[in-house]
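EI: anyone free to look at a 731-residue chain?
SC: sure, send it
EI:
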Amino acid sequence: MRKWLFIFMAAAFGLKANAQVDRQASVSFINRVIPGKADAFLIEEIPQQNGKDVFELQSRDGKIVLRGNNGLSIASALNYYLKNYCFCDIGWNGTNINLPATLPAVTGTIHKTTPYQYRYYLNYCTFNYTMAWWDWDRWQKEIDWMALNGINMPLAITGEEAVWQDVYKGMGFTDKELDAFFCGPAYFSWFWMGNIDAWGGPLPQHWMDSHKALQKKILERERMFGMKPVLSSFTGHVPLSFKDRFPKAKVKKTNWDAGFPDVYILDPDDELFETIGKKYIEAQTKEFGTDHLYSADTFNENVPPTNDSTYLDGMSKKVFRSMTAADPKAVWVMQGWMFHYNNKFWQPQQIKALLNAVPNDQMIVLDLYSDAHPVWNRTEAYYGKPWIWSMLQNFGGNISLFGRMRHVAADPAIALHDPESKNMVGIGVTPEGIEQNPALFALMLENVWRDTPIDADAWVSNYAQRRYGQVNANAAEAWHILLNTVYSGGLTEGGPESIIVARPTMQKTIDRVLTKLDYDPKKLAKAWTLLINAADSLKQSDGFQYDLIDVTRQVLANYASPLQQKMALAYKNGDKEAFKQYSTAFLQLMDDMDALLSTRKDFLLGKWINEARANGITEKEKNLYELNARDLVTLWGDKESGLREYSNRQWAGLIKGYYKPRWEFYFTQLNKAMAAGTKFDANAFDAQVKNWEWQWVNKHDNAYPDVAKGDGVEKAKALFAKYNTLVLQAE
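SC: here you go
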């Protein structure tokens, strides 16, 4: 009745009467999420409320009515029902959809309107640190998860390289020239952002063709829900041969300062800039359509050649014109990361020059790191531009337990109602990696359908109930400890890492491996105890299994530091027996962690490698993709890479096959030095270990299983019996 009433009113007032809800698509979605249950639901359409998405829930004739203004709202209504009436939870790392035989009725009508026009999702880096090898099946699950959580503005940059191939070949560039330009598939993010060329390539044609087709499926599904995907645009990154093909062009070298060669950037002042930008968006629109949202980050982790505001203003106008030349409705979506990352350069005058060159209604700024380092509150809310409050949280795809839960629970709503926030139009989730810390992301996305702060203490109790399928006092208490330890993180770039993933050292912390904790590790051990005590009651829960293993992993990862320092002290004192004791215990700890993590698919190096190889259709392609997969999570670049360990993962296979052999080699060399009474040759060790690392990156030995084995709960119990007292005694 409501749907027909809406259509009648729309016609009467000259509004669009086209249905925004594809009923059959919504039925298919429900059957994917809760197979065989679609008949228990009725789907009805209602109009937007004040231009914002809206949903309603109601019971009628023994069925649950899901109402919304589009497929996304219908999905969000379903998720609200599953969470709040059936106590279910759908996430990356463990799902509970054990529905009662009779679905609970909804009393009255539940009505929810989002206060946010936009709910943004993803970061360029996510497409590599997590999504590099995804096929359609995995993408379909993610898009369903986005819809359940109300995301309507996803970054969508899969298949971009195929469009660039068409553009540059149309300009006369050869396959050989483009082979020296396109990087490997684990490094696209930094290629797209103009940081690197060619690394991990050359890129096979099959990849470009298959991922262009994949992007079309991704976009079709996202748009079916009513999402508005953000596509890419031109920011000046051109092939190395561009300067030879167009000798009069204003091309300048720039360097990312991460150990990679220079790349070439076409100056926006050059007349070719607008031409290429227009060609690209036209070609992209032909292949993928458009929702008029385009991502462009002109100086990602690079400093502009001058801080002159006239230059920055002119450059910004030209980048924008390169979009509008092809699409007059173009809206520039800019990551605000550079304003934090290079904050010494980006002072108010420079930021104003860059932003004010574009009309307010044709730019949206992502305040990419609002959860820890907001920029909006020191730029007068981006000087009037529409902007989005975002949670970054993760760097490199590291899996440390980490987050700022109380900030995530309260700060978006506080900012929304702050008069100083001006034109805040949305919230976003912008991590470098996903498939970790699922509770934090679930909490952040609770903000989508509310405009008041969330009570984090009450929320974690409710989360534990729906994640595990029952109320458990031990689990609830454990989650309150987690809230006040690992999830009360400081202003660091992501969570603390374990010394086990570092290139062997006597130091407590090095380079990318920062081991300082913002909490007392013994308090985390208390949460571990409580989860162990809950294990017999909750062990059938997939989410509980993951959480128990993840907390066990984190406790042991933390314990590695005091153990390493005891080893270092023994070596310093020349105590051979103590050195043998602690170095042996350190290696055993790694074996134990590896065995624990091998019980969950979420923590398998073999899964990452085999998914990479599955993208290839020849042995050469498979080997190239495996090289990409191994390199990204270890060295990142070549054997001299300054980014090594940036994307470290505590994974089964990686611990035993990569981290442990490095430490074994280190201990062997130290033992030799102690036995001979000579000084340890750190330089010789460094050269040898670099060669070993590079050999490992280039292997194709099929050494790592991609299927979990063993009982993770029983393994966690055994490790608790072995390590709990040691952890509590550690200094």
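EI: The CA atoms of residues 78 and 690 lie 52 Å apart.
SC: 👍
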